Amino acid sequence: MKKQEVFIWGGIFLLQGCLTKAMGQAEHPNIIFVLTDDLGYSDLGCYGNPVIRTPFLDSIARIGVRATNYAVTSPSSTPSRASLLTGRYASRLNLPDPISPGSPLGIADEEVTIAEILKSVGYNTTAIGKWHLGDRHAYNHPVAQGFDSYYGMLYSHDYRDPYVQTDTVIKIFRDRTPEIIRPADSLLTSLYTQEAVNFIRRQKENSPFFMYLAYNMPHLPVGFAAAAERLQENRKSSGELGAVVEELDFNLSQLWKTLEELGFAENTIFIFSSDNGPWIEYPERMSKDGITERWHAGAAGIFRGSKGQTYEGGVRVPFIIYWKGHTQPGFIPGNPISNVDVLPTLAEWTGAGLPEDRVVDGQSIADLLTGKAEHEHYEHRPIYLVNHGKAEAVKDKEWKYRRTRIVDETKREVVLSELFNLNKDPSERVNVINDYPEKAGELKTLLDTFPGDK
């Protein structure tokens, strides 16, 4: 049984954590991981947006680390979130695509999450916001996956008419009990933030906490959220998308003020990212509300592609991390890193250790983020991009090999193989597979031997 397994290896690493403290090392840091939904690479000021104002996140990026080559390993919600929380490719998790309410699929009881490894070394844990990892089985729920408490929506806020024909009623749950029925889109961000502030105020100084704060925004629809009276000024200057992103930034600034007020900011790891790229090519069903417009979706900057695709625009997203006195101030790494690296990195920083009975696909990037390793010579294993449950691309240093099926001009389905040098061509405009046959063959072999198929 999962919980028995976790207890056994967790007990070992709890002892390890206690020994670490006894040896005079720093107390365990608090950890807040903020995950936005469908936020594009260039939807923040510090990532080049000319109209959306994000002063708080810009300030954290200046004193922390702002990665420019961080990729999620799947370009859509459910598989991306599952990979983040487990450090494993979605192909191992039987979660190939976003799942609907009531789906028989969901995160398995046997999986070990970030929350579970941190609980093994004494962390209080909470999940707040969008889950989207299953709701049918008891073990799919956050409180069965290592989180002591949960407050949020079990899926996206578009699982309702007119976007999706469904009998599901949108609810916000407290643990397993519905607390708010049909919450207004305009309230989701502030409700989650208030819950996060309340959680922090309940914490004790000598008991570390882990908060997974997963906002629904800026996933479409954003029009109703931006219609809130308090966002009208923002909406005038940066549109509906800008209004909800600026509200996120403001709410995070208030959360940080709470940390400072209570003395937690000095030893809190703060991480901000997105689950995938922007939904630029959203289906027409999302426009049936008469409000949603094409410019409501985010932007991928110079990158090609969109949510649901393994071009860089679908997988390369913001990643900001700050831990006072540990992460390199103002560091902007261009090294390829990914969301499956988060779990092993946090495990190293907390002394939690990793489960030994399964493959963890990510690697710790602690030395890169803290400056103990020179970024020019930092080695990262190949990063695979998994779409619809299968490896569709692989990134190795500056090279990327991508293989998909397309319909050609004769309406036949054919295999398209592409090779890009992302240093010279980050926009993936030129397929150089015929110019570099040896490199193409090398990466093809990597893709053909994808370890996540085993």
Q: What do these coordinates show?
A:
This protein has 454 residues and is α/β, with parallel strands linked by helices. It has helices at 2-22, 55-63, 77-86, 114-119, 188-201, 223-226, 232-262, 312-315, 342-350, 366-370, 437-448, and strands spanning 30-36, 65-67, 70-71, 124-129, 149-152, 171-174, 177-181, 209-214, 268-274, 319-322, 337-338, 383-387, 390-396, 399-407, 413-421. Strand 14 and strand 15 form a beta hairpin. The longest helix has 31 residues, at 232-262.
Brief rundown of the structure:
It is built from eleven helices and 15 strands.
| Main pleated-sheet profile | 9 strands, mixed
Q: What percentage of amino acids are in beta strands?
A: 15-25%
Tell me the series of helices and strands, N- to C-terminal: HEHEEHHEEEEHEHHEHEEHHEEEEH
- Using DSSP, what is the number of strands? 15
Low-confidence stretches: 6-25
- Radius of gyration, in Å, reads 21 Å
Mean pLDDT: 93
Task: Please identify the oligomeric state.
Answer: single chain
Tag the structure with descriptive keywords.
454 residues, alpha/beta, 4-stranded antiparallel β-sheet, 15 strands, globular
Layout of helices and strands:
Layout: H1 2-22, E1 30-36, H2 55-63, E2 65-67, E3 70-71, H3 77-86, H4 114-119, E4 124-129, E5 149-152, E6 171-174, E7 177-181, H5 188-201, E8 209-214, H6 223-226, H7 232-262, E9 268-274, H8 312-315, E10 319-322, E11 337-338, H9 342-350, H10 366-370, E12 383-387, E13 390-396, E14 399-407, E15 413-421, H11 437-448
Parallel strand pairs: 1-8, 1-9, 3-11, 4-5, 4-8
Antiparallel strand pairs: 2-10, 5-6, 6-7, 9-10, 12-13, 13-14, 14-15
Helix pairs in contact: 5-7
